[in-house]
Amino acid sequence: MTASVVGTETVETGQSGLFVVVVGPRGAGTGSVCATLAELLRLRGQTVQAVTDPSNMGWGRLPYAEKSRLHSRAVALHLAAGRYANLANEVVPALERGAWVVSNGYIQSSLVLEQFAGLSVAETWSYNRHVRQPDLSVYLRRGAEAIALQRVGATRLSRPEAIQAAERELRLYGEACEFLEARGWPQEVVRWRGQTAEQLAERIVARLEAFDRCQGDN
């Protein structure tokens, strides 16, 4: 039996799948790596549920016009509520069916991006501290210049500004990793240095399969 935690409620469940999240700065390639990872796992015979955080449905949706009018604390609370709803409605049911859940993004993005809005890590954590701990959090680490190249065309930032923003996000993701490591979260940093998304996904699959074997031996 395993225990699933959603909010403050703990529910005993049967055989559970694996929950892996892939996180990193905007432009780090989390979307392509998650899609490739899910496909590789399916080819190995796993049932896979792919999700995004924040979710594109229900609580996860917050129109930009509304977001721009809300206080940063209200936005943070909305995102936390969406995260709990996504866990309860999508993630935990899939895990209870024995599926492996691959999430593009998770609490790490809130710990980082809400600092840009003036909230502390401690405050953001207080809103999210009851979320389910993933079996593995994967941090994609890419060079600031490579990330900046992905952003320049999609934003109004100049190249130097985009590099500076990427460097700050990389630093904050590193701090988020240390913060969660101190709380016992299993984590791994995967550096993107000339590899393809498939090569990175293969590395993550190997790590997950090793974890799954260890779980089966216990």
What does this structure look like?
The chain is of the alpha/beta class and 218 residues long. It has one domain (19-217): P-loop containing nucleotide triphosphate hydrolases (Rossmann fold, 3-Layer(aba) Sandwich), CATH 3.40.50. The protein is 53% helix and 17% strand. It contains 8 helices and 7 strands. The protein has helices spanning 30-43, 64-69, 72-96, 107-116, 121-128, 144-152, 159-181, 197-217, and strands spanning 2-6, 9-13, 19-23, 48-52, 100-104, 136-141, 187-191. Strands 4-5-3-6-7 form a 5-stranded parallel sheet, sandwiched between helices. Strands 1-2 form a two-stranded antiparallel sheet. Strand 1 (2-6) and strand 2 form a beta hairpin. Helix 1 packs across helix 8, helix 4 (107-116) packs antiparallel against helix 5 (121-128) and helix 4 crosses helix 7 (159-181). It is globular. The two termini are 12 Å apart. Residues 1-14 have low confidence and may be disordered.
List the topology elements.
Blueprint: E1 2-6, E2 9-13, E3 19-23, H1 30-43, E4 48-52, H2 64-69, H3 72-96, E5 100-104, H4 107-116, H5 121-128, E6 136-141, H6 144-152, H7 159-181, E7 187-191, H8 197-217
Parallel strand pairs: 3-5, 3-6, 4-5, 6-7
Antiparallel strand pairs: 1-2
